[in-house]
Amino acid sequence: MNRPLLPLIALLVGCDLFASEDEDVSSSTTETDPAVEDDEDDTDVPCTPVASFPDADQDGYGDPFGGIMDCDVPFGHVENSDDCDDADPDQRPGAIWHRDADGDGFGDLEASLEGCSQPLGHVIDSTDCDDTDGTRFPGGVWYVDTDLDGHGQAGATVDACG
Questions:
Q1: Separation CA 139–CA 108 (nearest Å)
Q2: pLDDT at residue 53 above 50?
Q3: Which has the least CB within 10 A, 36, 104, 123, 146?
Q4: Mean pLDDT rounded to a whole number for the chain
Q5: What are phi and psi of 81, to 5 degrees?
Q6: DSSP the chain
Q7: For residue 87, what pLDDT is reported?
Q8: Burial label, 36 (beta-carbon count in 10 A; 0-12, 13-18, 19+)
Q9: pLDDT on residue 5
Q10: Cα–Cα distance for residue pair 129/70, rounded to 1 Å
């Protein structure tokens, strides 16, 4: 049996692996035992420990490398370990990635992939108005060249997607 799992298995079955031979562990519980929870009148109440995992990026998916067992799921933890990058909320199971052929940071709604990690040349955003032209994207501004000198006028702008 894998040694790192012994404490977890012991916790689930109520064993104390670290008790001395002279110690009676069948009736003892401590405040640090995650299978026992204190209620309001200071008596110990047994509980069923649950595994929880930290969710640093708050995307609802936990980091598989940081699980704990406790009676309650602590703040900042979730009950799954499905996150593929807990530092980036966009990288999560079921994320939809959109091709960004022109590299402007805005993707094409019509060209998408589903995946946990960001594929090369794809972004979460799907609002590109022209994925073949990196100068045309939502919020982009073009300056109108009203005097045809090759330079736009500061006061004459149009929406780059318009």
A1: 16
A2: yes
A3: 146
A4: 81
A5: -125, 45
A6: --TTHHHHHHHHHT--TT--TTS--SS---TT-TTEEE-TTS-EEE---EEEEE-TT-SS---TT--EEESS--TTEES----S-TT-TTSSTT-EEEE-TT-SS---TTSEEE-SSPPTTEES----S-TT-TT--TT-EEE--TT-SSS--TT-EEETT-
A7: 96
A8: middle
A9: 39
A10: 49
Q: How far apart are CA 93 and CA 85, in angstroms?
A: 10
CB 107 within 8 A of CB 130: no
pLDDT at 18 exceeding the cut of 70 = no
Residues in the chain: 162
CB-based contact 98:122 (threshold 8 Å): yes
Q: Residue 36 forms beta bridges with which residues?
A: 46
149: tokens are 């000198």
Give CA–CA dist 141/46, Å, rounded: 63
Per-residue pLDDT, averaged over 70-90, amounts to 95
Choose the weakest-confidence range: 17-21, 39-43, 52-56, 60-64.
17-21
